Input
Amino acid sequence: MVRAIFGRLVDWVSGVPSPTGPWPTIKEEWDRLVDWLAGVPPRSLQVPAIGVEPEAAEHAVPAVEETTTPLETYLAYYRGLRHPGPGYAVLVTGAFGSGKTHQVQRALPETERIYVSLFGVRSVEQLHAEVVAAANPSLEKIAKAAEQAGAAAKNLGGMFAIGAAASPVVSAMLRREVRPDRVLIFDDLERSSLDPKDRLGAINQYVEHRGFRVVVIAHDEAIAEKDPNAKKEKLFGQVIRIEPQTDQAFDSFLLRESNGRAWSFVGSHKNAVLDIFHESGEQSLRILRHVVEDLGRLARTLSDVHIAHEDAMKAVVALFTAFDIEVRNETIGPDDLQGRRHKIEKFGWDRASQPD
Output
């Protein structure tokens, strides 16, 4: 029974149709599993209405004290460096989905930063136009039009290509409208299709020739793959690798839960969920967000009798969280779970048959 139910559970978590019937049947079978774990007779599900405001409860999520991270400390120092500028950029790296952009933006006040995403940027002209648009949104249309005209002239070749490599209009806008009084942030470095040499060369113009304080956000391994030489020693004077702030992220994701009963249930198991998340080696906060949301969905299928059995709930939450992380990462699938008992038994037989 346990094997069959968890096979369907993986389908439910993955959002695929159930091969055995509508989802209410899955909920009923899950209820039977929890009854079995809790040692209580099956009861009808008591699902509270969605939209209940979270109430103060015994297991309410405690307030988290704000702490200053090493990234915030260093960027506060870097932000304080004035004209003619530090002469180097700061590279902020971390795993995909670890919250790099959020942490950098939190460390730099909105009024003191210019944020530019390099996702989809295909030319140096487009990069400069994006900077102009981010620094002064009212000039966005002019900058984009100038960038497109420069690129078109360059493609025509001959006399049209003279000076088109750096659009005079965009260059003038950069000199007049973009001043180095704010920190310039370039995000998604590895997601630009620009040649690595041109990409880092363009960024270096802001550092060496314009006196900007520049922060670049990227997945460091991806930079190495695209540009082995990367000129990191010359361009980046400081490299900071961030770790995901899972504690704060968990609380932020939980605030999205509108059902008070589910909110209280998930919050009461915060420490256990984060322990399993850390032990898995996972660093993507996107995965953690899904786990928090899925546990909220799970809570809606449990009765008060189930939730009152703390030992059973600890076992269920631990197993559910571990499976959810692996399923979301596509490390395991329904077939792996449905056949896991046979695999465990086979493993035991194989070990028992081996000579000492």
Summary: Residues 310-328 form the longest helix (19 residues).
